Structure formats: C-alpha cells, structure tokens
Amino acid sequence: MELKGKRVIILGERDGVPGPAIEACVRSAGAEPVLVQTQCFV
Amino acid sequence: MAEAHGTGDLVVILGCPSVESAEIYARTVTEGDPSWVGPLAGVALGLPVYHVLEPEVKRQFAPDVYEEQVSIMESVLETEAIIEAVRSVREAAAG
Fold first, then answer.
1. Does the pLDDT at position B1 exceed 80?
2. Burial class (CB in 10 A: 0-12, 13-18, 19+), B8
3. Which of A36, B5, B13, B45 could disulfide-link A19, Cβ–Cβ 3.0 to 4.6 Å?
4. Do A26 and B48 touch (CB under 8 A)?
C-alpha cells in the first residue's frame, strides 16, 4: 500500500502516538491527513 | 468522513498504545464497532487500517520525522504484538 496521494484518517492516542506526530509522518510521505484526532482516556 | 469523501483512497492510521485498543479501533473501521454501542455498530466501512509503527507505512515516512515524532514510543510499546493485531484484522477484512 502506497501512502502517497492517499487521504488519511489519523486516530492517535495520548498514551501511545499522538495525532499530530502521526500527521507529521503522513505529510512527509506525501499523503493528505483529512482527520487528525488524539484520544485521551484519563 | 467515509460518506463525505468515499472510501476509495482513504486509509486509517492508528497510534494506539496497546494490543487491545489497536484491535478494537482496527475492527471498528473495517467490520464495524465490535462493542455494538457506537454509531459504527454494524457498519462495515472496510477501510485499510495500519498502525503507525508498522514497517509497511514506517518505511514511507521521512526518517528524520519518524525519529523525532514516533521512534521513542516504538521502544516502549508492545510493538510486535500491536502490529500483529492490526495486521490480522486488516487481512481478515480484506479476505
């Protein structure tokens, strides 16, 4: 699966990898984040 | 989101910290909410889903960005088990 050109739904988590961190990676791969969330269950 | 954009070129990437949460999220965006309590209960979106730690997506990221943003978590999470959980759901959904 090639990420480049894909639209990406990002479901991060505060205790794991947060959404903005994944977003930076996704953008570096040439994909477009269309939803970025960071879940927090505290 | 899937209704608005269509599912053709949509991909889901997770950042869950545990095997259990990764599996629940992955199942929710493929076969529908396994707990049957949310709006995606019974809704099989069939979206391709990956965890951000999976080599298949990781190799496509700029190495310096991944190193700065994600690599620290790779060393403290149950990376192999999380990857396997998400991969299993994805492959089952793909048939």
1. no
2. exposed
3. A36
4. no
In the numeric block, the tokens 């049957």 are attached to: B36
What pTM does this model have? 0.94
Q: Give the residue among A11, A9, A15, A12 at the shortest CA–CA distance from A31.
A: A9
C-alpha B10/C-alpha B73 separation (Å) is: 25
Min distance A9 CA to chain B CA atoms (Å): 5
DSSP H stretches of helix in B1-95: 2-5, 19-30, 55-58, 63-69, 71-76, 79-94
Q: Give CA–CA dist B40/A23, Å, rounded.
A: 24
- How close, in Å, is residue B54 to chain A by CA atoms? 12
Retrieve residue B18's tokens.
């545990």
Q: Which chain A residues are within 8 Å of B9, Cβ to Cβ? A: 5-7
Give the Cβ contact number of residue A20 at 10 Å: 14
In the numeric block, the tokens 């298949």 are attached to B56
Expressed as residue numbers, the domain containing B37 is: 2-94
